[in-house]
Amino acid sequence: MGVEERVAKYQTRSIKKKSKLFGLKLAASMVDLTTLEGKDTAGKVASLCAKAARPDPEDPDVPPTAAVCVYPTLVAVAKRALRDAPVRVASVATAFPSGQAPLRTRLAEVRAAVEDGADEVDMVISRGKFLAGETAEVQDEIAAVMEACGVARLKVILEVGELETYDHIRAASMLALRVLRPGDFIKTSTGKTGTNATLANTQVMLEAIRDHYLATGVAIGMKPAGGIRTAKQALHFLVGVKETLGDAWLDPARYRFGASSLLNDLLRQIAKERSGAYQAPWTFSEATEGY
Predict the structure, then answer these.
(1) Residues near 64 by Cβ (< 8 Å), separated by ≥ 6?
(2) What CATH number is given for 3-283 in this structure?
(3) Catalytic residue positions, numbered
(4) What is the DSSP string of 247-280?
(5) Domain ranges of the chain
(6) What is the DSSP letter of 74?
(7) pLDDT of 39-62, one tens digit each?
(8) pLDDT of 167-191, one tens digit each?
(9) What integer best gives the mean pLDDT of the chain?
């Protein structure tokens, strides 16, 4: 109740100078830098990995991003390109973005991604089954994917734009949280629907994580994805994390942004805080279109 009123207050917080610079760099370190296009190539992924490892070649204080996220067929390319860089390789799987494939096919895709070196797997739930009330089957599928992941981190995408109500988002969040291991994540969206991450739907998921943690002691991460394109937006999301879950979640191990264009705006704002002047949009390499 009242979630939209609560999140509206996050946008009134004033973050200045050192605190703002800290927040901008923290947000950069939380980005899963992504390319998910049918025209993706090995060269494009290698370029993305170079950007992830050193976002601003002129400023070594800007941290690397948390991960690079690609389709399963390009996991091995990303793994080779990153070499010893402290950037994880994430792969979407389970018939992303629809999830409309037999479970055995989805599990085979997960295993293939992990065998090729994926450190993290972003899966989609069966939204149709969830909305039809087949929640036990959805939960069993999450458990099966988690087993197929082995030691790889699992991020469960709810696709909030198709869940229709905050009640459904809360219920789907709790369904996933009961299965997941410490260090796994729940995630808002694929970025392929009309409605993606908002402060409000993310807040519903944050509160589910909080309540699950208070009840079980199991800390699950959060990843809003889709539609977060500016540094200002990212700081608003971080305010929500701090005020709902506390400082322990202000860490890439527990919070990520699924974004691509966001990183360049963060770099522009960091440079502005450093020099006092805004950089032109073309100062930094073009971000890959994605979520």
Answers:
(1) 29, 52, 53, 54, 55, 85, 86, 87
(2) 3.20.20.70
(3) 122, 187, 223
(4) GGGSSTTTB-EEESHHHHHHHHHHHHHHHSSPPP
(5) 3-283
(6) G
(7) 999 999 999 999 999 999 989 999
(8) 999 999 999 999 999 999 999 999 9
(9) 94
